[in-house]
Design brief:
Length: about 425
């Protein structure tokens, strides 16, 4: 019997995860990607050797780490792994010991957080205990700000608020408390090393797209870049899927849409109109990354937390020289950046330079190497958000992406999990 065949539309991390899983399940894979390179939003730029924004992983992202290992990526060579440290310019606020059980590590980290007064540490301990006693559940319509009412102000401003916007890319006054609690549960209290920070020592391309490409080619998968899918249809007789593309038609027994939500909705507007309406209801938040060069400079830690405010857009600054990249190269990250983009990317970058001058004493003439805005970086992770299903309806069709229903916000882990799930669902359907 010939192999059942699958078309994967989209070569981002969800599409790559789906393609790898389909190959492992014995399906013949054809992957179609509009862009000239794979990787989606988490990709390396073609010029300058920079990435399309600063990305990090945490130890709780186990499906992503397993996928990387499957395609030949060594974690030790690809990442600098360190225990969670919230380090500000005047010292660490929270530092979890390595190798401890999750609960004990969090308890010890809070008790040893000497830069915080006892009232702050006790407030965080009391809050964390109350969340655990409630099973990390809360009313579905709560924001993170509502969840933390009454919390000590330092605990809020130097722990909860920066972690929330980093994890959900949504400001805490609008972010879903339930999703935030799920991330905290998995990262801080479920998996040993789940809160560890994994800082990439290699480019985004070498984290997954390039190794996955080589692995897929060895498995016989057909990979087509610069190939835009224009329309989808099904043969009435054999119910095979046909993707009409800029390079001609492709046909397969099954189809996985792993493109953006807007592209997926447009391709399925006739077949699945209600599903498309759910996609259209999603709103998105940008992320800005400002790459800066200051030869000879070095931060007290590879990742430094910054104080965000009305004139201070960035939440974190990364010393890329400390994690295997060019010495003197830094990246400042502005999550939930919609307000800052109203006056343009250059205005945001200059505000970052001024912020570093005020908070770190950097010169105002520090060189901005490049500023990057991913306008639709993530969906806005708001309370009671109805995210589209990964199974829109027609047999032989699945959808993957970080916006699909799932426990996590729009993260690489969410994208990978959805890709794996879509492949398994499709394999099960094609096997019946």
């Amino acid at each position: 019997m010939p192999k059942r065949s699958v078309i994967v539309v989209g070569g981002g991390w969800a599409g790559l995860a789906a393609a790898v899983q389909c190959c492992e399940l014995g399906l013949a894979v054809t992957l179609l990607e509009t862009a000239p390179q794979l990787g989606g939003r988490a990709r390396s730029l073609a010029d300058g050797g920079l990435d399309n924004g600063q990305h990090i992983l945490i130890g709780a992202y186990q499906e992503t780490l397993r996928l990387m290992q499957r395609v030949g990526v060594s974690e030790a060579q690809a990442f600098l792994r360190q225990p969670l440290v919230l380090h500000y310019s005047d010292g660490p606020r929270l530092q979890l010991p390595a190798g401890w059980s999750p609960s004990l590590a969090l308890l010890a980290g809070l008790l040893w957080a000497q830069h915080w007064p006892w009232r702050t540490r006790i407030s965080l301990l009391r809050t964390a205990l109350s969340w655990r006693l409630r099973g990390f559940q809360c009313p579905s319509d709560w924001t993170v700000q509502q969840l933390c009412q009454g919390m000590d102000s330092l605990a809020w401003s130097e722990f909860v608020a920066p972690l929330c916007v980093a994890a959900l890319n949504t400001p805490a006054d609008r972010a879903s408390a339930q999703v935030f609690l799920r991330v905290l549960r998995d990262a801080l209290l479920t998996v040993r090393g789940g809160s560890d920070l994994l800082l990439p020592k290699v480019s985004l391309a070498d984290l997954l797209p390039n190794p996955a490409t080589r692995w897929l080619q060895v498995q016989g998968a057909q990979l087509h870049t610069r190939t835009r899918v224009l329309a989808l249809s099904r043969h009435a007789a054999d119910k095979a899927w046909v993707a009409e593309t800029s390079q001609g038609p492709f046909e397969a027994d099954g189809l996985i849409l792993a493109c953006s939500s807007s592209e997926a909705a447009a391709l399925l507007h006739t077949l699945c109109p209600q599903w498309g309406e759910e996609c259209a209801a999603l709103s998105f938040e940008p992320i800005v990354t400002v790459y800066l060069e200051r030869p000879g400079a070095q931060l007290p830690a590879p990742m430094l937390a910054l104080h965000e405010g009305p004139d201070a857009p960035a939440q974190f600054l990364f010393d890329l020289g400390q994690i295997g990249h060019k010495p003197g190269l830094f990246s400042a990250v502005v999550s939930g950046a919609s307000g800052w983009m109203e006056d343009g990317l250059n205005h945001c970058a200059q505000a970052v330079v001024l912020q570093l001058h005020r908070q770190l004493g950097w010169p105002l003439d520090v060189r901005v190497v490049q500023s990057i805005c991913e306008k639709r970086a993530t969906f806005a992770c708001t309370p009671q958000l109805q995210r589209p299903s990964g199974q829109p309806g027609p047999k032989g069709l699945a959808v993957a992406g970080d916006y699909i229903q799932g426990p996590y916000p729009a993260t690489l882990e969410g994208a990978v999990r959805s890709g794996l799930s879509a492949a398994r669902h499709l394999h099960a359907e094609l096997s019946t």
